[in-house]
Amino acid sequence: MRLVLLGAPGSGKGTQAARLKEHLQVPHISTGDLLRAEVAAGTALGVQAKAVMDRGDLVSDEILLGMLEDRLSRADVAGGFILDGYPRNLAQADALGKLLDRIGQPMDHAVQLDVDTDRLVDRLAGRAKAEGRADDNPESVRNRLNVYNDVTAPVIDFYRQHGMLKVVHGEGSMDDVFTRIVETIAVGTEVG
Question: What are the boundaries of each domain within the chain?
Fold first, then answer.
């Protein structure tokens, strides 16, 4: 099974990806983790990425895609994978689709965790308090959600237009959300 998990900050992507990894027995690939590992390992792409980050710039789509291509060429992804944190924009979604077609691993589903904005603000504020983070106050959280809606949410329409989008109601217990995701990808229909 090859999945992309989509959802706003605080929607539970990371939590559910970890559970799906165990359930599906496929790797969970977080682009943030991948980027940090490449930099730490000092790979050619990691060195390029570090230079960009040291300047305070965002790592280019080309560098991220190169890291993903390398990661997706490893034997442990032969049975599938779960992508979390990528694609974040339409250009990345298009490039990812072309990469997956080229390597013969087309996407099965894009799963969107749909959570009400007020609930997201509450979740992130709670996480910030628990982790002692000052950057997750309600105003900054709403700003991050606006950025998400402007830049990343169009990816949802991209996958909808390509017939791959599955929307899952992302509120409730972790177990309930997990069950909805599993049912959705098993039958290919939305589970609310």
Answer: 2-187
pTM value is 0.85
HSE value, Cβ hemisphere, 13 Å, CA-based, for 102: 12
Catalytically active residues are: 13, 88, 127, 133, 144
Burial of residue 61 (CB within 10 Å: 0-12, 13-18, 19+) is: middle
pLDDT digit string, tens, across residues 126-180: 777 777 766 667 787 888 888 888 888 899 999 999 999 999 999 999 999 999 9
Paired sense of beta strands 28-30 and 2-6, if any: unpaired
Assigned CATH for 2-187 = 3.40.50.300
Helices (H), the chain: 13-24, 31-41, 44-54, 61-72, 90-102, 117-131, 138-147, 153-161, 174-187
SS3 label, residue 137:
coil
CA distance 3 to 57: 29
Residue linked to tokens 């490893």: 74
Q: Is 105 helix (H, G, I), strand (E, B) or coil?
A: coil
